[in-house]
Amino acid sequence: MSVLVVADPMASLDPQIDASVGLMDAAQRLGHQVWICTPEDLSARDGRVRARAQRITLAPRVRGGDHRWLVEPTWYAVNASTTLDVVAEVELVLLRIDPPVEGRYLHTTYLLDLVEAGGVRVVNRPEGIRAFHEKLGALLLPDLCPPTLVSTDAAELRAFVAEHGACVVKPVDGFAGLDVWLVRDDRGARALLESATRTGTRQVIAQRYLEQVDGGNKRLFLLDGEIVGAVLRRPSDDDFRIGPPCAPADVDEQDQRIAAALAPLLARHGLALAGLDVIDGRLIEVNVTCPGGMHKTDALLGTDLSGVIMRRLTHHHENTLLKEFHPCLTP
């Protein structure tokens, strides 16, 4: 089987932690050909999508004792370069461009719509990524989320902060922890909110700050709506934002309730892979544009989330109970 990974340039990926690299490695271990290209390498002529692609082989890797893998300085080799007729020569496309979903990302999804129309599976489905906003999509299930306000109005946001004492504020198109603010009910709140909203010109999300985050922000890994793994991440002493995976996480009844509620929405939009952020049983975000964390979790816990995902996506039936990959999962 040939797997095409549409991603940002390889030079921008960190092979020690990047989830896309973990998926490539898993595909290679399963005996598949791994091809890579960037959005700029895609073109379409008369409805046929072509990709200027490279077939690669990844160097061996070993767990490094934390959330990182130990890899060789030259961590992959290019075996061939060619232009692929994607529908004719590829069986699976992984859309692995980092957010935000802006012009470059959107144009890529429209080209990949043609690939999907030709009968090749694209994960996640381009149309679904456009339809389901990973920060606002959770609000389709407000009972599962902490109190949340989306607004450009600093005065409205200020009143919301006063109501809840402290809020995490972030732009609706933010990513990777950038421009995330912890706003408390004090004299500095109004100025921070004016900066966050760029004086009323940018939509931001304000959510009640959950102090239980010190006990861990749980990342739930969903595959076809099912939880296949979980890991805890915690803030550091000098930064309220979430750090890398640090400990295994138990999957409890509330986690299963959240996954069950989201599963029909994800299935409707063809979003096979999702990463849910959950704090104290409350849904914070549904990451679907380029869900990550699997490679880090595999390094930390010795699981094989990347392998489980690629076996499912490439139609290898997973006959092993999920508990063997993530012993903390509970029925």
TrEMBL record:
Residues 133-314 form the ATP-grasp domain. Gene3D superfamilies: 3.40.50.20, ATP-grasp fold, A domain, ATP-grasp fold, B domain. GO terms for molecular function: ATP binding; glutathione synthase activity; metal ion binding. GO terms for cellular component: cytoplasm. Pathway: Sulfur metabolism; glutathione biosynthesis; glutathione from L-cysteine and L-glutamate: step 2/2. Coiled coil: none annotated. Its cofactor is Mn(2+); Mg(2+). It catalyses: gamma-L-glutamyl-L-cysteine + glycine + ATP = glutathione + ADP + phosphate + H(+). Its EC number is 6.3.2.3. Keywords: ATP-binding, Glutathione biosynthesis, Ligase, Magnesium, Manganese, Metal-binding, Nucleotide-binding. SUPFAM superfamilies: Glutathione synthetase ATP-binding domain-like, PreATP-grasp domain. It holds the Pfam family GSH-S_ATP. InterPro entries: ATP-grasp, ATP_grasp_subdomain_1, Glut_synth_pro, GSHS_ATP-bd, GSHS_N, PreATP-grasp_dom_sf. PANTHER family: GLUTATHIONE SYNTHETASE, RIBOSOMAL PROTEIN S6 MODIFICATION PROTEIN. Belongs to the prokaryotic GSH synthase family. This is Glutathione synthetase. It comes from Nocardioides marmorisolisilvae. The gene is gshB.
